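note to self: dont lose this again. the chain is below, predicted strucutre after it. 182 aa total, dont forget to put it in the shared folder this time
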Amino acid sequence: MKSTRCFGVFIFFIILSSILQTQSGNAQLIRTPGEKQHYLLTVNLNQIHSIKEVGARYDNKKYNYVMINVLLSNISKDTLKYLNMTCSWNEAFTTSNKAIKIAGWSCDSNFPTVYAIPPGVSKTFTITLEIPKEQQTNNFRVGFYLIKFRGYSAFLDFDKFLHSKKSYENCLLWSNEIPIPK
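---
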């Protein structure tokens, strides 16, 4: 029953977005370095916590699970409105090292939502990283796909983003360098 309702809500947003897109044009995404300078992504290196080591899984590798806090800061004079999912918001994150993954979870109700961060305020995301045990060298960064909300047609852009993140690399904000925890 829940999945049918969620699917219905999703279809509603797609239809609403397509109607509004014909009226307002495509949503604008962050595309210039000048616009990115108003937002900051940081990881507090003093708050990195190893959770556990996991033995062989489907790929016969051992993994360390590490929790980090990532802060998305709005250092502009305007409220930042951006799109993300209600439950699987971790999908908006990536790492500079493709061997290091952002751990996910299952969701019962998951749809695009507009979030707001007032000027001078930060939002903290607690993320679990999945790091292969043999990956013990090199620093890495965490990235966040910042898709600004500029009208309801942005929901169509967000749906495209979920299916092809590669074309949205211009929207990536990168954190400070993170050493791989031992």
